[in-house]
Protein: FAD-binding domain-containing protein
Organism: Rhizophagus clarus
Amino acid sequence: MSTPNNHIPTILIIGAGPGGLLLYHGIQKHLNKNVKKFYVKIFERDIGPQDRWQGYNIGLHPNGVKSLISCLSESLVSRLPEVIPNPIHENEYHGRIYCDHKGTEISRSTSLYLKSLFELATMPTYSTASIISYRNRLRDLMLEGVDIQWGKKCIGYDESDNEVWAIFQDGTRVRGDILIGCDGINSPIRKQKLPRLQLFDYGITQVLIDVAPNKKLMDRIIALNGNFLVHKTFGQDGDTTASMMRLIPIENNITENTPDDQIHYRITLIYTYYTYWDKNINVDDNNPRFNCTSFTTKKG
Ligand SMILES: Cc1cc2nc3c(=O)[nH]c(=O)nc-3n(C[C@H](O)[C@H](O)[C@H](O)COP(=O)(O)OP(=O)(O)OC[C@H]3O[C@@H](n4cnc5c(N)ncnc54)[C@H](O)[C@@H]3O)c2cc1C
């Protein structure tokens, strides 16, 4: 079966996360305006934009900001500052510090005071500089002007030489010329296309706990530990302990008059260790104290 020359191909994007949405905008900006016309359809399993909590924050690195600027329309790019607090807290320095198990400093990255996220786009891609944005605001911005088909959970696809059909859990099928899976880590598209590509378990476990100190407490923590986005300590056995301090308020509606004890920040405490250490830990659900026989053994 041949395709007529005037045929306008249809791209099917599965998943309206950051990847799928940015791809959608990039196609509209770079292909549809300049190179070749495509119809683009985007499908999301969530039933609507507010269906699922999107998380507090997402860190933007130079590459991320460059990609946003490259793919989004000029009007959305001009509104990117809406996804970070305005004004940026004057103490938000985005630095990283690494220490040994005794707390002695090993290295630190330059602490930058970024006045705007656009400054990041001028930095080299290998830079460790980053800026924290509100994850929900970033997604809401990227959803603007995009005609998402909500409540469409893709369960697989059928393909022939020159067409592809996305198959959905609700029993419907949609025809396209190109199918792109932007459906996250458990992608059914990937599982069907590349069944031998399995997730690889590195044998490492990471435990993350979020705490939300108010501004008064946060100021004391900074006075004690310094002002770093990431503070990482290497243990003696290959384990690491880290804290990530986000100095932008969790609340979206902070004004100059908001009392300090009603402004909360997010600190994520992260402990990373070899998964096989779990075998040495006996947890009694009726007794929150656990018994660790040995943390230093290297044998499973
Ligand atoms: C705890 C944590 C913290 C992180 N922090 C950062 C950070 O600070 N900075 C950073 O850059 N990255 C961070 N990441 C990574 C970042 O979240 C991911 O790289 C990013 O979300 C990947 O985007 P994505 O669009 O590819 O996939 P996803 O965000 O997973 O989006 C996939 C979308 O597809 C939809 N979907 C899934 N299956 C189907 C289906 N079958 N049919 C239809 N739709 C489907 C989902 O509902 C979702 O909307 C973090 C990740 C985690 C887990």
Observations:
- Residues 292-300 have pLDDT under 50 and may be disordered.
- Helices lie at 18-35, 62-71, 74-78, 135-143, 188-193, 215-225.
- The two ends are 58 Å apart (CA to CA).
